[in-house]
Write a structure and sequence with these properties.
heterodimer; A: about 325 residues; alpha+beta; Immunoglobulin-like; three-stranded mixed beta sheet; 12 strands; B: about 625 residues; mainly alpha; Cytochrome C Oxidase, Chain A; two-stranded antiparallel ribbon; about 65% helix; globular
Amino acid sequence: MRRATRLAWVVTPAVLLAGCDGWQSALDAHGTSAVSLKQLIILIVAVCSVVWMLVMIALIMALWRNRRERPLPVTPQPSTQRRMTATVIAAVAATTVVISGFTIMSFFATRALGIGGNDELTIKVRGLQWWWSVEYFGARSEERFETANEIHIPVGRNVRFKLEGLDVIHSFWVPSLAGKQDLVPGRANELIIRAEKPGIYRGQCAEFCGMQHAHMAFLVIAESPDEFDKWINAQRQPAVQPSEEELAGGQRTFLEKPCAACHTVRGTAASGTTGPDLTHVGSRKYIAAGLFETTRGSLAAWIADPQTIKPGNNMPMVPLTPEELRAVSAYLASLK
Amino acid sequence: MKANITGPATRDTDLERSQLEAELAETWKTPSGLWAALATVDHKIIGRRYILTAFVFLALGGILAALMRIQLAQPEARLIGPDRYNQIFTMHGANMMFLFAVPVMEAMAVYLVPLMLGTRNIAFPRLNAFSYWIYLAGGTLLWLSFALDMAPDVGWFAYVPLSGPQYGAGKRADIWAQMITFTELSALAVAVELVVTIFKQRAPGMTLDRIPVFVWAMLVTAFLVIMAMPAIMVASTSLILDRLVGTHFYNPAEGGDVLLWQHLFWFFGHPEVYIIFLPAAGMVSTMIEPFARRPAFGYLALVMALIATGILSFGLWVHHMFVAGLPRLGNSFFTASSMAIAIPAGVQVFCWIATLWDGKPVFATPLLFIIGFIVTFVIGGLTGVMVASVPFDTQVHDTYFVVAHFHYVLIGGAVFPLLGAVHYWFPKITGRMMSETLGKWSFWLIFVGFNLTFFPMHILGLQGMPRRIYTYQPDMPWHGINLFVSLSAIILVAGFLIFFLNAIRSARSGSVADDNPWAAPTLEWATPSPPPSYNFARVPVVSGSHPLWDCSDGLAVANGLRTDRRELVVTSLVAAEPQAREASPRNSIWPLWAAIATTVMLIWSIFSPWAVVWGSIPISITLIGWFWPKSIPEDES
């Protein structure tokens, strides 16, 4: 039983470390720092596993060797005592060597994490209960825009995230790209990320931040520089004006009802800043901080009853007729 | 012993054994009846209550853990809503840390330390009674708030601003902060009692290098409590001030600092871990002797390791804040200090293995728990080394990896030794043995169940699962492991159920234990099981570090104590030479009144700052009653 358990401890992590698949995993690393962190993690775990096995071998031998009878209680023999002292000192010395090695390794790894580079892209991320506001800048002030819960970055380029906590402490963590960094109110924290492979990487708030801490996810989409430029140019545009009658009705409802008090849709009168910017909400993969894929249906469900879907979140239920609900969700889904 | 002082008082010198025991029993007794039970200051009765209460909180905390595992067994479960779940994990953490782990270790010490030192009661026995009532009140407050659906929901370290006036609605965070006040009050009281007992009440001849290692561990722990608790007291008091009277200690908009809370909390919070672990390590060093049938190898090394751990524990709090945005290279200092604490931990592990190596192990349940402890604690220590590394920590901080790590340290490192200690000292406390068969069943179920439950959490953490989430989405690759973990927890629960069953059954109908069923070397085994109210009919005199092994022809004793009043021997700090006969207080109901008055004031102060003013009046009255001279023999100088 024990041997099987021990074996499982050794084998299971090895299997899981080798074949791990996930879009939010420290073991599925596709960012420069995540890759080097993964190497560090595997190295330290390997050394520690060896240490643990050596200790266990010593323990088993200690328990095994003296099953023969002896007078009770044992009086320590000076020669045995000396040998044991030497062994214990050697073991402590070995421990010291190992942890000194770890300390030096993590010192250099830490230093490497903080190094940026030229040609950085700066993105500001604000954490709020329970979503992420993302701000991009440009050469001119009108190129600045905000979006939410979905961050696009170009592959192969250093991106400097300026992290700002607006209400409580949150933590910005995209395990496949980099280690985490807290967003602390009153402090300006930064994190540099560089994606090495195009892909969609999921991130999630890692510092308990209240009722809906579990539903505070976001996506980082790393794409080729061309696609990234295309995306950023599209995002800089104001929202498309509705062409169909139903969509226009949806827009009217959106502007007349309390929606516009909290949300911005650039190009319309809606300019609230309490909730996420919805100018291109239809282009985002998810709504409600990673809760649902964006479809007309999920938008309608969300608007109809946000408190059942994500209890405690700051979006109130706005009473709408079925027609209004259909029109508003169609309008929002059309904001590509 | 000092020469007899002439006087009318009765001394034990000339008395026959039976007459002596009768007189001592009369002087030290706790009469039957509720009132007497409330007024007792017997460290054994209070210690027993403390231990029982702490185990009740363990069971309650375990139920919360089981609820969380049911909720997390599948993605998007709707069994528990986010609000209740947040209360549950906060309660689980706060309950296990503040109401179970710290108090249970102090409770064991309250019961055992005076016996192991050969004295008749703990120092400041009325303060001891007070500390128990305060602890009970704090625990009741927290659980009542949970029953009323207004329990704290901000996590057991209650980070601001989430717990601050703006985001922590209602009285939930205040209840958390005031519960801290209760437990720190009781912990400080016990710490002071232990320091004085260990320094001044050791049996004559028990020099510093003859103190059992468990007692050393409690001495170091008591100093940690005394030095660490003020930090949390400052933190929780200023939080209540922020919430109640509008100060801005933690409000960055008004010049306060959010990270101030984290510094203060972890300056307490990290030593807290060692306040739990050091007593457990001391238990292992003490228990390993009778089961290895050999004195512990490296007494000096073991004691120095305890002291070194205690000192180092104050230099690593920042490793809880590696991702908070402090200067990165400054963090490296705390990497080094956090790693360094592995050295004293290693020293102890190697000494225990060496003891077993040279001894002849007797595989009774307590030794099984010691072995289980070494196996799991080494894993917890190694994952501790991992999270001490800043870059490593940036990936696992606040994930299930850390959840796995600290359960390995706290359950593997502290609860396993504690369960072994319960099996070991149970015959002394109750006079009956625990069943070995059930003991072995509970050990194996707990050991296997624990590892199957908590080891996979390391992997969950590396796979990106943050801690403290009430649910997760089906498209995350976590549900398989989560289900496995939840199912494994059933084994763990079964083990604990058998442990509780064994304890309850054995207390009623276990086989009767003799004075020293394990043939152990320390003084608590030199008196009947359970010990009489006066602990020792004659105060033992010690001439070695293993009194019951060193002198197989009977223990030397000291004479000359009065029997008509509660009296014990005060000895010198280093050499434990007898210095004086000192009175020990009689039973008194006043500690209970003082505790009630303090409780009223503390709970009232959640609602109004004026409670501190008006509430201090009844406290003063009860304290005056407590200390008022009552013309009894104990008041003679």
